[in-house]
Amino acid sequence: MDVRARQPAASPRIAHHLRATSLNRALDVLGDWWTQRILRECFLGVRNFDAFQTALGVPRQTLSTRLKALVAHDIFSTDRGGYRLTERGRDLHPWALMVWEWTRKWGGQADGRHPRSLAHAVCGASMRPLYACAHCGEAVGLRDIEVHDAPGVRLLPATGRAAQRRWAAGRFVLDVREGARHSAFVTADRWSHLILSAVFLGCRSFDVLARETGAASNVLAHRLGVLVSAGFLEKRRAADDGRRFDYALTERGRDVYPLTITLVQWADRWLPVRGGAPMRRTHRACGADFRAQVICSCCRGELLPRDVLFQRPAP
Ligand SMILES: [Zn+2]
Ligand SMILES: [Zn+2]
Prior knowledge:
With 315 residues, the chain is α+β, with helices and mostly antiparallel strands. The protein has one domain. It contains 16 helices and ten strands. It has a two-stranded antiparallel sheet with strand order 1-2. It has a two-stranded antiparallel sheet with strand order 3-10. The chain has a two-stranded antiparallel sheet with strand order 4-9. Strand 6 and strand 7 form a beta hairpin. Helix 3 crosses helix 16. The radius of gyration is 19 Å and the shape is globular. The relative contact order is 0.20. The structure holds zinc ion (2 copies).
């Protein structure tokens, strides 16, 4: 059966949501491989140029450009010496916690740049960060959240040609096996992140993904190939038509969802659009508007930056 015939109502909404999502605005600022890794180091306590350089092995000129941009976006401040997070930057803490958790699970020891252990100062326990609904406190996953239009949705233009050119120009670095150990492999590459978001919203086939994301077929084919080889998506024969293939999330891919939503929530707050957030999410189980909160696996309290203790990775 033709997928278009099966999803007449759903597909225009998906394209609409993909264009309107605050993820696009977050990625304008943070959609960069080095930027995301620099931020991650900052949450590990790295403050100065040489320490960033040693930790990441990043070319000095690249590091300098990225640090300047982070200061210009008011995510880092240099007022007190070194690079420190501003309030806007500190508000990325839930994202950083979920990056650590993703890396613990999928990066393995080989990544080396995540805390060796985490503890919660409030309950004193060693713990894992859990992604939860701030209203009812239940841990949530992709399937627990429902997406709706919100007032801000009408004010946003479709992804323009200029943005598409900029996205395509972004260098897609790295060996796939190496990259698969870093969440930034997907979350910092705009097309990969947008394609994965479309799969989060229920798109499955090449044609539907092409239509909803607006990606050119060569770009889409390349990214899908990479996402499959890196283990974020799985290519399967479609259940209703054995001649066609569908793309389904693997557990590794599904675990990127909290990283996406923490970035979206950050952009809703710090890069707002006139008229309010473009999308509304509700938690199916409790019915409340969904706001993500990262909580302690032991006492279930919210994890605030000052209360999270960690053992730094070995230098
Ligand atoms: Zn809830
Ligand atoms: Zn706790």
